Description:
Elements: H1 4-8, H2 10-18, H3 30-62, H4 70-93, H5 100-126, H6 139-143
Helix pairs in contact: 3-4, 3-5, 4-5
Amino acid sequence: MVAPAVLAAPAGLAYVEAIEPWPERDPTTTMGSTSLMARTMILPGVLRYQGEVAKTVSTVKALGFTLDTALIEKICGLVATFEKQTDALEKVMAHHAGSVTKEAAHLCDVVLPAMKELRKTSDTLEGLVAHDLWGIPQYEDMLFIK
């Protein structure tokens, strides 16, 4: 499959038109697996971390101490956003334009921005979630072998 950025270029569009008929999009490709990765690799660890933080907040409050709840509120908001963005990505990925040119435009104009928004939220969550609960290798894991 050709990358969306390539498809957006005039030369890329000419290439895309040359491969008619447009093949069905394989859900296991990078673009199709983004929402699958979000649901099966990122979200489970985020939800476990959310539960741990919520339990800690409850325990500390039950002991009679005052605790800032900004972290759990931020995590809850990001989880809700992440789930909505994943749903939205799945919806736009299910769209089939019918022609190569329209499909390429849809991928560039609709799918790629949805992926970028999901990525932005994921990056924010990555900075909050405990390292051992994050479901995919982090940059430091890839740079420094432990």
